[in-house]
Amino acid sequence: MNIPFNKPYLTGKESHYLYDAVSTGKLSGNGKYTQLCQSHLENTYGFEKCLLTTSCTDALEMAAILINIEPGDEVIMPSYTFVSTANAFVLRGAKIVFADSRSDHPGFDEATLENLITDKTKAIVPVHYAGVACDMDCIMKIADKHNLFVIEDAAQAIDSYYVFKDGSKKALGSIGHLAAFSFHETKNIIAGEGGMLVVNDNQFAKRAEIIWEKGTNRSAFFRGEVDKYGWVDVGSSFLPSELISSFLWAQIENIQSIQNKRKVLWDLYYKLLQVWANDNEIKMPFVPNFATNNAHMFYLICKNVKQRTVIIDTLRSANVHAVFHYLSLHKSPFYSDKHDGRDLPYTDNYSECLVRLPLFYELSTEEIYHIVKVLLNCKFDG
Ligand SMILES: *Cc1c(COP(=O)(O)O)cnc(C)c1O
């Protein structure tokens, strides 16, 4: 048995829609499939406006342009995240103020947020790690009070929700002023490389389309709102071709079965590992009561780096590929000399102790039993 960390899942309809897109002769962006994907996701998740992009990285870069990030502006985000979360804002001259993670979850610790706000702060970028919500109610209240923009890095958070105190729910990505999703092959629904910007604050809607279309008002022209189109703002080539969106459409159509399957596998891991984890001082993934689980990731938090190394090595010798995750951005070669020097102990802890287990649609329950058996036989002493 050889179990990879991830295996991209194909629903079987991708080639059908790709063929259809090719035969219509319209291959560039913003055609039938782009619009199908966008309107379906808007209707399903209550997003105000969706624009497909070539990646989540691009969607974050669009967000940084939209909120007019200028040199010297400060943007608050967790240090435990992917480089693109920070890079998108650094490209426009922002200073990144890194926040620590929660003690019970790798997501952003909202309790530390208010102390990090200065008169230069322009935006907060919560990252919904593992598709598990940050405390959005708390973050939005702080943002409102200080007049800041909130951009959700929802790269991993498709089909996941924030649960309010009264029990009502809102989809992640529908709460901040802007949000960015990823359809990279490692995410729950995929397009190879792909992403999406969600615009919830209407003040950004028109300009988002212009930035998306290389700084032109071509979208308005195609709708017949203007009689010619030209260069009206900055922008870039952020929209994906119909080849990408037709592929994505097959995934979106099957999102519920993909999600159901992933949750079954996630729950099985949880059930089988709970006692063992407790006996070995290993922490299981935690989902706060204001969050739901979209089964993006199954991870364990080891008691130290030595224990994690034993787990990764033991699994590897059984041909199971488990991997660690982010290295603290505040200690990265690129940013360490720009960081303000604060210690971020939880970030460093997740950086050293978190390990992710294989989780993908075609992972069988038999394979999970095999992985669990290998874990239960790990020798942590000597
Ligand atoms: C995957 C990911 C990204 C980047 O997504 P791309 O589509 O590859 O650009 C950004 N942020 C987080 C938290 C991610 O997990």
TrEMBL record:
First-tier enzyme category under EC: transferase
A UniProt-annotated Pfam family: DegT_DnrJ_EryC1
CDD domains: AHBA_syn
EC annotation from Swiss-Prot or TrEMBL: 2.6.1.59
Keyword Transferase: yes
Keyword vocabulary terms for this entry: Aminotransferase, Pyridoxal phosphate, Transferase
InterPro entries: DegT/StrS_aminotransferase, PyrdxlP-dep_Trfase, PyrdxlP-dep_Trfase_major, WecE-like
GO MF annotations in UniProt: dTDP-4-amino-4,6-dideoxygalactose transaminase activity
Family the entry assigns: Belongs to the DegT/DnrJ/EryC1 family.
Name assigned to this protein: dTDP-4-amino-4,6-dideoxygalactose transaminase
